[in-house]
Automatic annotation (TrEMBL):
<keyword id="KW-0812">Transmembrane</keyword>
<dbReference type="InterPro" id="IPR000540">
    <property type="entry name" value="Flag_MotA_CS"/>
</dbReference>
<feature type="transmembrane region" description="Helical">
    <location>
        <begin position="140"/>
        <end position="158"/>
    </location>
</feature>
<keyword id="KW-0472">Membrane</keyword>
<dbReference type="InterPro" id="IPR006214">
    <property type="entry name" value="Bax_inhibitor_1-related"/>
</dbReference>
<feature type="transmembrane region" description="Helical">
    <location>
        <begin position="31"/>
        <end position="47"/>
    </location>
</feature>
<dbReference type="GO" id="GO:0005886">
    <property type="term" value="C:plasma membrane"/>
</dbReference>
<feature type="transmembrane region" description="Helical">
    <location>
        <begin position="178"/>
        <end position="198"/>
    </location>
</feature>
<protein>
    <submittedName>
        <fullName>Bax inhibitor-1/YccA family protein</fullName>
    </submittedName>
</protein>
<feature type="transmembrane region" description="Helical">
    <location>
        <begin position="110"/>
        <end position="134"/>
    </location>
</feature>
<feature type="transmembrane region" description="Helical">
    <location>
        <begin position="59"/>
        <end position="78"/>
    </location>
</feature>
<keyword id="KW-1133">Transmembrane helix</keyword>
<dbReference type="Pfam" id="PF01027">
    <property type="entry name" value="Bax1-I"/>
</dbReference>
<comment type="similarity">
    <text>Belongs to the BI1 family.</text>
</comment>
<feature type="transmembrane region" description="Helical">
    <location>
        <begin position="84"/>
        <end position="103"/>
    </location>
</feature>
Amino acid sequence: MPSVLRTFALSLAFAFIGTMAGVFVPTSLFLPLSILELVMLFAAFFFRRKKAISYSFLYIFTFISGITLYPIVAHYMATTGANTVIMAFATTTVVFTGIAIYASKSKRNFSFLGGFLLAALLALVAISIFNIFWPLSTTGMLAYSFIGVMVFSGYVLFDFSRMKHYGVSAEDVPLMALSLYLDFINLFISILRIFGILQSKD
């Protein structure tokens, strides 16, 4: 587990650098980079049984992910201020750490949550696609974000429980770190969206 956490922390660092670099990326490149990010994500998880992903793949992915995260962060910084982003990141860190500690100390095995979480994640993806064509109301988006917080908090619980009870082989460290990275980033985006909506109502 320590090697996974070190790799996860380094992944966040690469994502942070990517977000900072996003300032210099032309707007026209964000969509192609987002598509590349999805392709890499698909490759990482759907072909993992054939070959483990490398550390280089992980860090390149998280760097690109940081770049594509920039427009979201920039939007909330422009509309509700930097404090909203800082509070969202701090809250995400506290929630993530708290759940991680609980899962690591608990004797219960939460791996049974996998099926429920996958179904909930697919529902979130479906709603996000629906939102592109028929935008949700502010209340609907707030509810969607709260559900996102619960789902990705559940994934943090699931992933740490899985590591504790089944362990992680050396070759699977980058993939496990990628899972934790996705948990953290998606939890952050959901919390940021909630804070952004609440701040805009003030």
